[in-house]
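Give me the 3D structure for ABC transmembrane type-1 domain-containing protein.
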Amino acid sequence: MTNTVAIAFGTIVVVVVVEVVVVVVVVVVVVVVVVVVVVVAAAAAVVAMVILAAAVVVNVVVVVVVVLVAAVVVAVVVKVVLVVKVEVIVVALTVVISSNSNGCSAESAVAVVAVK
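Predicted structure for ABC transmembrane type-1 domain-containing protein (116 residues):
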């Protein structure tokens, strides 16, 4: 009878110890998994912020380049318009001066400029 009680008691102790070990292992695994998930999520958030920052920088660079190109285009157009205006004025003055020296009226000189 004593051996049976000892075996039963020993079995109970072993089962309890195994259960405690299993619970401890499960808790440790859960904690490790949670820590890994949190670290990965934080790393993903940092990567996302870096990507967003890079996207913002790229957008700013694109806007600056577009503004600079637009400024160059506007400057070229203004220069062309001014050159054309100066040429028209020079032609008009030349026609007016030559028409006046030839005895032609100013109205006909303007008509000649309009035709040119």
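The chain has one domain: 2-115. Let me know if you want a second pass.
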